[in-house]
Amino acid sequence: MAANCAETVRQGFDAERVRADFPILARAINGRPLVYLDSAASGQRPLAVLRAVEHYETHCHANVHRGVHALSQAATDAFEGARERTRRFLNARSPREIVFVRGATEGINLVAQSFGRSRLGKGDEILISALEHHANIVPWQMLCEQTGCTLKVAPINRRGEIELDRLLGLLSARTRLVAVAHVSNALGTVVPIERIIQAAHACGALVLIDGAQAVAHAPVDVQALGCDFYAFSGHKLYGPTGIGVLYGREELLAEMPPWQGGGEMIRTVSFERTTYNELPWKFEAGTPNISGAVGLGAAMDYVERLGLDAIAAHEQSLLAAATTALERVPGIEIIGTAAHKAAVLSFTLRGCHPHDLGTILDSQGVAIRTGHHCAMPVMTFFDIPATARASFACYNTAADVAALVAAVRTAGEVFGQ
Questions:
Q1: 203 is catalytic
Q2: Are the C-beta atoms of residues 178 and 171 closer than 8 Å to each other?
Q3: 292 contacts 203 by C-beta, under 8 angstroms
Q4: Residue in 144, 149, 227, 374 annotated catalytic
Q5: How many Å apart are CA 11 and CA 101, to the nearest integer?
Q6: What tens digit of pLDDT does each residue of 257-269 get?
Q7: Is residue 125 a contact partner of residue 169, using CB atoms and an 8 Å limit?
Q8: What is the CATH code for 51-304?
Q9: Which residues have a Cβ under 8 Å from the Cβ of 74 and sit 6 or more positions away?
Q10: Which numeric CATH code is attached to 2-33+307-414?
Q11: This prediction's pTM
């Protein structure tokens, strides 16, 4: 596998060769070759990930940290090896800064409940943007109800970009935390997080980045960014579901109380008093998703062998081609036209509900996402109930773009465009 990937990089990005690494893409849907354009919801898994998980399950499985027998030690080595792999992937300073969670959603909730409930109160403010996924809205609303702090929302413009000047204008001495997406899942907008982090820190606020839509498309260096927290999900990165990562600066995590109680996160327990484990385990109550962490580490190996910059360039070429082609289809409106976008293309077709559009495309073997994409405030801003969303990944090709456009044209004909 490694040799094949290295050869791919030397010869230029070969999406057809990459496709061969993903067994599911050989499937037929409704008698047609599968065209999978829903990677923003969940990426498919390469053989390297599937085999890593299988090897763990068939050769190493046992509970971690708690056993002296050989299998337990092998499982612990695999699990903690995945943590170190994640540290390198994000360029964190220490594996103590890497907390395994179920996904970005749980990571954000962990910060809200551990950091937020212990530090925020009436008069304090949390700042987010109108571009956010529900996972970066609802936990902060819940925290405001619990503590009396206030949620502020920076607006977006008709291109689907955060109005940066207005966001910066909302920063004040009362701002305790800024929480924004790195990339919008609904529109693909790339957010200028470096500028936001710098300005927030100048006001004394901490910054959490929802990186769920970023890590599969560009290198992320948390030390260079200077963010305080960064959360992402494994299944967006060609890894398993049910595993994700919360990065937090060690000095912050050390001061935060545990969020959940149980086994693994303790040192000693008595009926009178419990003392907690060291970082990062004090945030990892119970038996973790060991095979998920192993698969996530394999996914990081995979994308780095392909080259994240090469993946991004390939996806951008597909996005540009699809955007140009769809703009020529009668009745199509592109929703989200930011100057800087990741490989996400949201659109509507006049006279056709996105759900109907998605059903017609599925009959042609083309899998896209339809709905509000867990970003209902974005839909409200554009005064639409939903969009159709095509999202591109390392395994997509120009033929996939052509199939998408042809299927949309077919839908347009059905609805009289």
A1: no
A2: yes
A3: no
A4: 374
A5: 37
A6: 999 999 999 999 9
A7: no
A8: 3.40.640.10
A9: 59, 60, 62
A10: 3.90.1150.10
A11: 0.95
